[in-house]
Amino acid sequence: MKFQIEDVTVYFPYDHIYPEQYSYMIELKRALDAKGHCLLEMPTGTGKTIALLSLITSYSLSKPQSPIKLIYCTRTVHEMEKTLAELKLLHNYQIKHLGPQARILAIGLSSRKNLCVNPTVLAAENRDSVDAGCRKLTASWVRAMAAENPNVPTCQFFENYEKAASAAVLPPGVYTLQDLRAFGKEKGWCPYFLARHMVQFANVVVYSYQYLLDPKVAGIISKEMQKESVVVFDEAHNIDNVCIEALSVSVRRQTLEGATRNLNRISQEIDRFKATDASRLRSEYNRLVEGLALRGNLPITDTWLSNPALPDDILKEAVPGNIRRAEHFLHVLRRLVQYLRGRLETDNVEKESPVGFVASISSHAGIDQKTLKFCYDRLHSLMLTLEITDTDEFLHIQTICDFATLIGTYARGFSIIIEPFDERMPHIPDPVLQLSCHDASLAIKPVFDRFQSVVITSGTLSPIDLYPRLLNFHPVVSRSFTMSLTRDCICPMVLTRGSDQLPVSTKFDMRSDPGVVRNYGKLLLEMVSVVPDGIVCFFVSYSYMDGIINTWNDSGILKEIMQHKLVFIETQDVVETTLALDNYRRACDCGRGAVFFSVARGKVAEGIDFDRHYGRLVIMFGVPFQYTLSKILLARLEYLRDTFQIKEGDFLTFDALEASCSMCRSSYPFKG
Q1: How many domains does the chain fold into?
Q2: Residue 147: inside a domain, yes or no?
Q3: Which whole number is the average pLDDT over 342-369?
Q4: Buried (b) or exposed (e) across 573-608, using 16+ Cβ within 10 A?
Q5: Cα 539 from chain centroid?
Q6: Is 240 in the same domain as 104?
Q7: Neighbours of 186 (CB within 10 A)
């Protein structure tokens, strides 16, 4: 259908539109007209994604003299593919009505693991190994050697892409990750580097939150994005946690042991270069003397991760003299690793500010704040000079340099917390040193400052007035929309007593009570006997889920449940959980019915849809409050109270309700 919102003709690819979708578009247009940021909440299942895409693309079509770019951020690859599928439907509808003038280029961008088509590289187990496998075939020095020695392996897809030069472009259209892989195979080009190149020309780019919020990734992928862009963070109810994780670092004993191995390997490489190509180390030293941390514009294949600090906080000056020579820099890192190893040898929980921690490093290890700031860039430069391609082997020393650069850069909004063991398992020594970011606004501030409009939207943003305080910004529009229902299709219930009238609760002092566990089991047994198809159960933690399932098994309740439906369980292993989910869906499809046991804040609670017959009933065994004795959480609560005047109780309730809503959101049969 086609309709007007003020001066914009909106192209909407469906015959009917919900009232809340129309209202949503009106408020979104207000924000675009004002060139400001906005917060919009609309229940999941009401067509929020297509409303966003229709309004923003139609808005751009109505202003051909100043078109805007849409940067659409999702949490998962699954959500990215769904968004691109909706956009493809919309694009076809717009071309049908407007002809060729409606053509756009829209692409999804993900990691090499999701876009690579080279079978040799794809054989690697994880993302870091795939990245390293790609570098081993495409790094500039590897290709230079291959030009002289044909026995040196390279990637034929990348070589073909390079040979095509300016001809290597994507024609207009909407490309999912599968479409990019198919196009790459057809042309013989590398789809990953083709997509990276086309991002700057695309009208719509769909990618992960981290590509804008994590400075290490954003510094490479998103640095060319123009200011006249509209950024959308979809399903952004937990965006504050994403921002905090982007600037937090954990160091364990395994990290320090791995970093020591990395330093020994780097030392061997330096000795080898001194014997065979000392001029390379000399030229790097001269470049650093001149104040150039990195050598000019690197080839796209040589770029590693960017600096972990935010762009405005990176020093634009010469690298300190005491780390310009490679061997001197290694000595500094060895002293830092030794210092951190000593700090982990503690029997008590310790908490320090970055200022105090840096002062301690300076007095005990002789490393000043400025030297710490440059650790990451100096490591990057050295690894390029030494032509190291297996970057997945150097993640530990990279973590140490991440940590050093961040504590050398930031004095506020962070804490260093050292814990000798997990308080929930005090008998197992597992010391960890954590640089914990408490201020979510740090990571997202460059996005608000740089782009003309940022849209934060989700099915659940309540209380909506807390987000501007958490993220420290001023939205020009902040609205919540309710859902219009033609029939009663949701029946929420809160159960406080079991069938024997005993109270039930997952409060810590009650959750293991045999009466509570028995009543929860009887509740589920009664439900599986009357509810058809799929039932999804969420527990507050993995440990609680394991304990309650074992008790049900011993008492025979689990056996009775399985007489009605099959049972599948989420584990902390991704492969096992994926297999369990697949079999759960098959059991629902064939009519056998199934129960899926999952965990709040787990892998399944975010980003997996249990729509239609896959989620006829959701049972939440308790409200997933965070572990309130966590030292990191306590430090963050203190910071939020002192800086933003957010009360501890308000934040904990807000956080728990967000986690609860994200679980239910994937299962409600809204309007379907």
Answers
A1: 3
A2: no
A3: 93
A4: eeeebeebbeebbebbeeeebbbbbbbbbbbbbbbb
A5: 23
A6: yes
A7: 8
